[in-house]
Specification:
The complex is a heterodimer of chains A (107) and B (118). In chain A, strands 2, 4, 5, 6, 9, 10 and 11 form a seven-stranded mixed beta sheet that branches. In chain A, strands 1-3-8-7 form a four-stranded antiparallel beta sheet, with no helix packed on it. Chain A is mainly beta and 107 residues long. In chain A, 0% of the residues lie in helices and 50% in strands. Chain A is built from no helices and eleven strands. Chain B has 118 residues and is mostly beta strands. In chain B, strands 2, 4, 5, 6, 9, 10 and 11 form a seven-stranded mixed beta sheet that branches. In chain B, strands 1-3-8-7 form a four-stranded antiparallel beta sheet, with no helix packed on it. Classes of the chains: A mainly beta (107), B mainly beta (118).
Chain lengths: 107, 118
């Protein structure tokens, strides 16, 4: 099973600041990594797939990068609605796996 | 509108069974792989199971293998998850999710809560 490790666990930032979230895989997933956003009480929302492709309707302030084992989700300038928990997920191998999440909170 | 609507959650005793359903609408259900993902209270997301569009291939997380069974009825556009031999650690919100061709989950249901307790 591929283990995805996200860091940091919590990121405390102010609106307008840049957020950089990391996801590291225990073995290469090539570019088969997705990012999701989840707010309390809501289902997750797909942000990025295949490492850097924005899903339909996702604002340009969200960007993804990386390949192999190291990936980054960047939010260029935090909007109030961006304070949420973010998960990475790999589709390279079965079973599919998620990271443990990074919570972006208001500083 | 593309929509997934789960049902069937509730309270079950340890060792008991439940069947979850996920009714799909607004997209070509029979060509879409479908997944179940769960989230224990206050915890992160855990992938549970997947089934191919035709229903001929299924995969499971080790934590549920041999106890849970995924299936689908393409005529009814409905996905199912049969939960047997339930344990306290199966307590979670269960989401069904539609997979894009590249197996990222682009549509999610609102979730159904399963509580396993005596």
């Amino acid at each position: 099973e591929i283990v995805l490790t996200q860091s940091p666990a919590t990121l405390s930032l102010s609106p307008g600041e840049r957020a950089t979230l990391s996801c590291r895989a225990s073995q290469s997933v090539t570019r088969y990594l997705a990012w999701y956003q989840q707010t309390p009480g809501q289902a997750p929302r797909l942000l990025i797939y295949d490492a850097y492709v924005r899903a339909t309707g996702i604002p340009a302030r969200f960007s993804g990068s990386g390949s192999g084992t190291d990936f980054t989700l960047t939010i260029s300038s935090l909007e109030p609605e961006d304070f949420a928990t973010y998960y990475c997920q790999q589709r390279s191998n079965w079973p599919r796996t998620f990271g443990q999440g990074t919570k972006v909170e208001v500083k | 509108d593309v929509q997934l609507l789960e049902s069937g959650g509730g309270l079950a005793q340890p060792g008991g069974s439940l069947t979850l359903s996920c009714a799909a609408s607004g997209f070509s259900f029979d060509t879409s792989a479908m997944h179940w993902v769960r989230q224990a209270p206050g915890k992160g997301l855990e992938w549970v199971s997947a089934i191919s569009g035709g229903g001929d291939r299924a995969n499971y997380a080790d934590s549920v293998k041999g106890r849970f069974t995924i299936s689908r009825d393409n005529f009814k556009s409905t996905l199912y998850l049969q939960l047997n031999s339930l344990r306290a650690e199966d307590t979670a919100v269960y989401y069904c999710a539609k997979a894009m061709v590249i197996d990222a989950f682009d549509v999610w249901g609102q979730g159904t809560m399963v509580t396993v307790s005596s």
